[in-house]
């Protein structure tokens, strides 16, 4: 199963759905700030998540 990027706000929902389907999700949890994010913050979080996910994808393909 591919890793999911989940905010800490939605983590309980993701875990409950996975449990109902008898799955163990691989998740990358990011903080969900009160008041939301501005564009620069959002871009930074996306870049950080991608940097974490790309090595996992390479490993899954056997290219790491």
From TrEMBL:
This is Uncharacterized protein. It comes from the Bacteria.
């Amino acid at each position: 199963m591919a890793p999911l990027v989940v905010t800490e706000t939605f983590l309980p929902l993701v875990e409950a759905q996975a449990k109902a389907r008898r799955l163990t999700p691989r998740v990358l949890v990011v903080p969900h700030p009160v008041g939301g994010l501005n564009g620069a913050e959002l871009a930074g979080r996306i870049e950080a998540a991608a940097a974490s996910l790309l090595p996992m994808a390479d490993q899954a393909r056997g290219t790491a």
